[in-house]
Structures are given as structure tokens and as C-alpha cells.
């Protein structure tokens, strides 16, 4: 079964909304009254309630610079490795699971890049028309359209996690823990 959720940002907080279940709330830092392991700096907490009383996972920065996804009892769920900030062409986001599985997500899949190349002339015509009419562009879309996290070396295999251009994330039921997918969705945008 596929689990689908979207990121929503408001002035006060971020939340992840999934179909058929309650939203997951994002809070900066660690939950109060819950100590963290040594050498970990708290980044954010994903909780079932807006106050963060019942956390689902805590994401911390480890000494090596990567992000660790921990349960409230400090059980290690995954390690997230984000691309360097200055890398621009197809940056790779990695998810390292405890069983040794590595999921690598590159921004822009081959089909979405081809679609982008086909629609590029129409987008340029649209931008020229906007420039001639003195209308401000409503919201510029950036390429690429989609990101998918797969095991390295399996180009045609099914993705464990995908992100669409509209900010919708899909997780296969057998591919990845939903809490790790939630943490990756937040870390991709918060840690840049």
C-alpha cells in the first residue's frame, strides 16, 4: 500500500498532511524533558500533536555532520545525508537504513528532465509574453520536476520514496518507514 503526504508551511509552523490520517507537526529542537545521546545536536522533532508532547521521531545532527533519525527512545531508524549546499546539478540526497540499505535520491528523474526539455520552448514563449505585457510572473517553477529515492545501481527499479513537483511525497508500503520519509521531506527543505 502506498502512503501519500504533502508538506504545508504556515507562518507559525510546518506540518505534513497525509491522506486518511492525522497531520504530523514539525517543531524545531528536541522535545522538552527528553535528553538526547551525547554528541547530538537537536534539529527538529516530528510529533503527532502541535505541542510536541507525543513525538514520533527526533532528528539530530551527529558529529560527522549527517542527520540521524531517532525514535523518542533513541532507537536509530536511519541516517540522512544531504548534498553540499553549493552543488547545483542533480544533488543527491541519501538515506542510510540500519540494515545497510542505501537509498539515493537525485533531483530530476530522466523522464522528468526530458519532459522539462520538451516544455522549455513553451515556457520561454510564456516568459517572453509576460515580459512584453509587463505582468509579473505568478510563481516560477524550477526544474527538475521530480525526485525519487532508489537503491544505487537500480535505475529502472521501483522507488522507495518519490517527491513530485507539487510537493507530494509517496512512500511504498514495503520500502521505507513512514517516519524516515517524513524526516527526509522536512530535512530536504529545512537544512539547506
Give the tally of β-strands. 12
Structural class: alpha+beta
Query: How far is the N terminus from the C terminus?
Result: 31 Å
Largest sheet: 12 strands, antiparallel, barrel
| Average of per-residue pLDDT values | 77
Write the layout of secondary structure elements.
Elements: E1 2-9, E2 14-18, E3 24-28, E4 41-47, E5 55-61, E6 67-70, E7 76-81, E8 92-96, E9 102-107, H1 110-133, E10 147-150, E11 161-163, E12 168-172, H2 178-190
Antiparallel strand pairs: 1-2, 1-12, 2-3, 3-4, 4-5, 5-6, 6-7, 7-8, 8-9, 9-10, 10-11, 11-12
Task: Write structural notes for this entry.
The structure is a single chain. The protein has 192 residues and is of the alpha+beta class. It contains 2 helices and 12 strands; from the N terminus they run βββββββββαβββα. Strands 1-2-3-4-5-6-7-8-9-10-11-12 form a 12-stranded antiparallel β-barrel.
For the structure shown, list the relevant keywords.
192 residues, alpha+beta, twelve-stranded antiparallel beta barrel
In short:
By secondary structure, the protein is an alpha+beta fold.
